[in-house]
Amino acid sequence: MNDLHNHHRRLCELADCVCDGRLDEATAAELQQLIKNDDAAAEIFAQYLELHSNLFWDLGILPSTPLTTQNTNSHEDSTAPLKELMDDLLTEAALNQDVTPRRTHEKQTRRTLFQSTKMLTVCLAIFLTLGTGLLWWNNSSPAPGSNIVENNSAVDSLADAPQVVSPLNPANSEETPALVENELPPELPKIDWDHPPLKSQPITVNVVEGSPTQAPVEVLGVAYSNDQDVINSINERISLGWKDWQVQPSAKADDYEWVRRVYLDLAGRIPTETELNAYLNNSSEQRDQELVDQLIDSPAFALQWSTTWSRLLVGRAPNERVDRLALQKYLHGVAESNRSWSNVVEEMIAAKGNPHQNGAANFLVAHLNNQAVPATAFVAKTLMGYQIQCAQCHHHPFYALSQKEFWELNSFFKQAVVTQVDQPQEAAPSYLLQDRPTAGPTYYETRFGVMHAAFPKYNGQEVIDDEKTSRREQLADLLTAGEDPLIAQAFVNRTWSMLFGYGFTQPVDDLGPHNPATHPELFSTLSRSFVACDYDIKRLYRWICLSEPYRLSSQMIAENREDNPSQGTPPAFSRMYFKSLSPEQLYDSLQAVAGELDERNQQWPQHVTERDQWVSQFVSSYENDENDEEDHFDGTISQALVLMNGDLVDQTIHTEKNILLKNLVSKSISDQKKFERICLTVLSRKPRPQEVALFRQIQASLRDVKSPVVRQELLASRLSDLLWAYLNSSEFIVNH
């Protein structure tokens, strides 16, 4: 059956037109020619009509026809001839459920059956064309005084919307006839939008609330291959935005603030006192660049980047089918060897095998359920930057993405299947991702109960559709084609958001004409340069971290008070926005305070396993078809309790368990210096005057203690209390 549909794709499209009442004279003639000259086509057409008749017997009546009590009898009378003709056709063609087809070896009998099928099918097509056209004419002709609904592409529940009468417009004050109960709204014609869906377009400037742009102006970015050219473009375009928005940038961040920021962003933790002093004592004019290059090439960057993308790809909630550690090992290797992001996308889309052995397979294994709908939505959202999940049931309300196009993308995953491998009873379950030998369309149902067929197609481009050719491999090639594909735009936008707290669009994974970029030319330049440099992940981070906007202070000033995206305004990036530490960053920063970084870097798989166990207390899964989960860590009671009296914090402030604290207590320096080093270790800065005054008060309470042993114990207790207070401060859990 799949082979037949594969060879008669046009026939399926014409059959859809028959069932939807969209068959015109030209397509009717084409349909008649197809089924007249091809016996197999006639049989397929009859099967297609049988499927639609079982699911939607009222295909001859348009959805806009109200099924009121007065016309129920006439409705039944009008469909009776159609049902009778359909029953006769199916009976004659031996396709009715009550008739069991008998195959005979006599050629004459089979030829007679096919000839009868063709004749009846042609009659049915002509009858449906004429009947549907007459019914449409009658229903679409407005009666005197009737309410004509104008085309609206963003309304699915028009019939349920309350009617609002404006007192300023008497023409609209006439009473609108109410819809009859259970009546469906009129079927709206398809609107041809200016922007094709799921297609990489030159990014344009659009008028949005808060934007200084007065009129849409199309601009194109430039693909640079030189690092300094890209950095200069960032500086120039962001500074032009400040002028347009009439804001002034904050001052340059001091060395302490910048070093803490770049360590949290690139290494996933705060710097140690030794690392901070190494930067401060470096007199080189290129010390910023040297530190960024050092961190990007360090094992800490590979761990931080792989941790972030493991969470984005499969979430934090446990899933028995997913091997999170295997996925992170795969991504860790990508970051260490600086492999191209386009290769990563191709490998994850086309991955096969056991997810324990092939870490890239875990992405699809996590989302291949519910007819691959979550996989379709996650690929579009995470890798392409488009939220298309609502289009599985209806046309997208914001841009031209039809329900059919959603299922055309979904059809690429029709072959993919996750099967459980036979294991000994005491062994953990094991799964296998593979492609089954199948072809043909994917079927989906519209809101009006009509079934349609969707063949694999991306960006208007069809692919080879047979049982031996992998659809996912073809999709991987299509996703990475072009000078500025969606996967490049999505990755650049998300990376910028990770480093600044906000992307060029908000939300960061919802690109499209309805959500224009705040800095379109810069966005286009970065994504095109990213592609021109072979999707080099580390170079992208280097460009952003060495730019002037990234070096700005987080301190708000009067001249940029309006630049506050947390209040809904577009970000001008005139200062560094606050970013809350993730649970993983908090865990690793506590280990940095405790002096356990060497073990963390050398045995990172064991470290990740222990850290995931600790993070799991902040994550809960919704266990729905979209595989959604909730992170209740940031600013919650759970977070406060963990920092106040959690086991990890208790170990960090314990003198005997914290190596750095133990050495600091016994070090031959003044008590004042010891207090200052606590502040430097936790907050990566020198203490403020108010804090110094507090230190002196604490130090004064120790002067009257005569016993050295008792004094040492009291000092250790005071330092432990001070460390606890700093760990529970809002400054510690924020990256600024």
TrEMBL record:
Keywords: Membrane, Transmembrane, Transmembrane helix. The chain crosses the membrane at residues 119-137. The keyword Transcription does not apply. Pfam families: PSCyt2, PSD1. Residues 471-610 form the DUF1553 domain. It comes from the Bacteria. Residues 234-415 form the DUF1549 domain. PANTHER family: CYCLOINULO-OLIGOSACCHARIDE FRUCTANOTRANSFERASE-RELATED (PTHR35889), F-BOX DOMAIN-CONTAINING PROTEIN (PTHR35889:SF3). This is DUF1549 domain-containing protein. It comes from Rubinisphaera italica.
